[in-house]
Amino acid sequence: MRLPSRHLPPAALAISALALLLLGAGTASAATSYLRPNADLSSSGSWSPVGAGTAWGALADNVTEAQAPANASRITSNGSTGYTSVGLTTMPLAGATGIQMTAWVYTANANQTIVDVLTSDAGSRVARGYVASPGWNSIPLAEPLKQENLDDVTLRFLSTSSLPQEIYAAFLAVTYTPSPPRVYWGSWIDGDVYGGLGDAPWNATTWNIFQSHAGRAPSIVHFGQPAPWIQAFAAGPLELTKSRGAIPLIDMSSNGATLAEIASGAKDSYLATWANAVRNYRQPFFLRWNWEMNGTWFPWGKEAAADPSQFKDAWRHFHDVAEARGATNITWVWCPNTRFSGSTALGSLYPGDDYVDWTCVDGYNRGTNPLQPSSWVRFYSLFAVTYSSLLNLAPNKPVMIGETASTEFGGSKSDWIDDAFSKQLPTRFPQVKAVNWFNWNISKGGGRWDWPIESSAPTQAAFSNVISSPYYAGNAFGNLPNWTRIQPLP
User: Fold this and answer.
1) What is the DSSP letter of 445?
2) What integer pLDDT is reported at residue 52 of this predicted model?
3) Contact call for residues 259 and 310 (beta carbons, < 8 A)
4) pTM of whole model > 0.90?
5) What's the pLDDT tens digit per position in 353-379?
6) Cβ distance 194 to 206 under 8 Å?
7) Strand partners, 363
């Protein structure tokens, strides 16, 4: 992934011939996006720009193959054998179908130039064209590039004779059928990332900064509320979330009470008061209660490891109290951690289909980060086993990724994001209907994790690119029907 200083903003990464779908629209129509030069790469010195300070600037005319270039800027060869290479903008491919790619090159003379399409400046050649006709010349790719190659796609121009050669414009045209929105996406948006501001949804500046860096408004905002015996239900942050078109995802734990106490009814007065307030609030939200219960780093996880039935009994009792008071606007999210050696068996902790609306999983690629060094784990390897377990437990439930992120240590975080959001989620995890990034540089052992999307310029560029795909829903959920569960997108 090239640095964002070489990239256009996400909204301008590709000029679409047809508008992408909005939520609720009908069948998608074909679209064409134009990936234009945006970086000078390697060169032998035999080519030079005319009318622009860079080769990519000379070639990045905002035209299609049906139009002649509007500017006289161009690149020219000096009569010796050699080459120059330019990088292109990128676009997200998540969920797109019927993809075809064609490089187009505009020349004003008939002196032959060889044009190669490469997976990167030092990468493999995927197409070659011999440009020898005035006007536009096409170079079709036999197979569309994968996301990781599209992000670094390169055009290389090779001079072949002493005759003058001139190229006025070039781009890669990508024709495809865009996906309708399939997946809610969101984040825990922590103000620590931005110099100690408050967290979203409370702090609008924190939300605005994250949204500007992501390049898009989230459809979920993730935050927490204390247990009912510590704090009464607070509608304020849910209203702030809803007012910006997003769905609240609330974490709540049983801190301050044991699972046995909850299951026995010892906390029913608090639970009932909380449930009454939720019913009166009316609007739907996700509730992720006692998450990561298959590990022992939280008190409820230790209790569950000692007696898994206590966890199930406590969950069912809380659910029954809320249902009895008409709090049907709660969408119950059961969210273990990814399975690991020594984790509590998921089947022993699952309360049953009647008590769970969405299953869920949390997982992180810690790589070789010195805060907790392990090994680099790609998205598929991280989630595949637990995802399969969730489908076995509850084959008809939508799946949420409640928390995920990657470190920069041990591999390419930008490539990890590309692979996760553009390839793995759309193709190998089709039942994942919501995904949440953990955007918090949370402290550990005197240091801070590098989870945020802002951990490096390539990482931020990668995230803003992949999340701009229409496969991931925008913020169109501020008026969901009262007293209903949140449904997965089709």
Assistant:
1) T
2) 96
3) yes
4) no
5) 999 999 999 999 999 999 999 999 999
6) yes
7) 404
Contact indicator for 338, 362 with CB cutoff of 8 Å:
yes
Residues 207, 210, 214, CA angle at the centre, nearest 5°? 135
Per-residue tokens: 267:
């906390």
Find the Cα–Cα–Cα–Cα dihedral 357, 476, 20, 358, rounded to 10°. -10
Among the listed residues 159, 108, 119, 169, the one whose alpha carbon sits nearest the alpha carbon of residue 141: 119
Q: Are 156 and 56 in contact (CB under 8 A)?
A: no
Residue given tokens 């959001």 in the structure block: 421
Beta bridge partners of residue 76, listed in sequence order: 48, 166
Among candidate residues 84, 230, 223, the one with its CA nearest the CA of residue 159: 84
| Amino acid at the residue 7 | H
Q: How far apart are CA 437 and CA 216, in angstroms?
A: 14
| DSSP type of residue 267 | T
Q: How confident is the model at residue 28 (pLDDT cuts 50, 70, 90)?
A: low
User: DSSP class of residue 423?
Assistant: I
Q: Secondary structure of 61-101 in the HEC alphabet?
A: CCCCCCCCCCCCCEEEECCCCEEEEEEECCCCCCCCEEEEE
Residue 426 phi/psi, 5-degree rounding, is -70, -30
Question: Distance between CA 94 and CA 180 in Å, rounded?
Answer: 10
Q: Is the pLDDT of residue 13 over 50?
A: no
Angle CA(299)–CA(302)–CA(303) in degrees, nearest 5? Answer: 90
